[in-house]
Amino acid sequence: MSHAGVEASRTLAAEYASIIRGLTPAEWSASSRCAGWSVKNLVAHTGSNFAAIVNPAEPDPSVPPPTTAEELQDRLVDERWDWTPTQVADEFLSTVGPAMDVLSAMQDPAIASTPMTLTDLGTYETHQLSDAFAFDMWCHMYVDLLAPEGPVSRPVDGSQEALLGAAIGWMLAGLPQMCPTVNTALDGRTIGLRLTGPGGGEWSLHPGATLLSVGSGLERTDTVITSSAADFVLWGTTRSPWRDHVSIHGDDTHAARVLDTLDIV
């Protein structure tokens, strides 16, 4: 179950909603850290995802379904491109509570393990969607929206790192399916990942026949990649070059080949 993901999502959503209520006209129109998206587009992205799980739209048989997550998200934002900031804020604020209730309901044992395919991102158990939302909100709020990386300055007390656990969990759960080329780069050799600070821990990336697997602890490896958990969100999503954040103990060349192929969505 992903109860921690639900609680992290609720906390992040409440903070996000508070920020949205106080955005100025200049902040709404500012460019976010997401290329091509303003703050309004960024908020529309999250609000549209809330709406999608609260009130799923009936598919239009005349429109081919999206084949990638990027295409799906771009469609949702494009549909709201001409909305006013008030309309975008209203959708977010009216659906955020019900969306959190949906994520909580997905922890019910009767449906928690039901497979859910997320376009090209892979297939996961239904309960894991709460971790996905925690990851998405953490990235977009603390990296793409708020300073120093984003355009909106608000006091941040540092407690956001305590919410990283669910986001990191989603990144590691998604890594095998989202980054299949990492398995090739492993070249039959296990490599370790050590993340420090809140949300951190130690894991091993094991090569597989088609996809890698992620195991707890450092096992059968003489090469370990180390960074803070907060920095992993940056370089693991290629928002920032891994070389700016990572130290390598062991085979630098092998680790670099693996890191160059990693891009978690």
UniProtKB/TrEMBL annotation:
It comes from Gordonia lacunae. InterPro entries: DinB/YfiT-like (IPR034660), Maleyloyr_isom (IPR017517), MDMPI_metal-binding (IPR024344). Coiled coil: none annotated. Gene3D superfamilies: dinb family like domain (1.20.120.450). NCBIfam families: maleylpyruvate isomerase family mycothiol-dependent enzyme (TIGR03083). GO terms for molecular function: metal ion binding. Residues 10-124 form the Mycothiol-dependent maleylpyruvate isomerase metal-binding domain. This is Mycothiol-dependent maleylpyruvate isomerase metal-binding domain-containing protein. Transmembrane segments: none annotated. Pfam families: MDMPI_N.
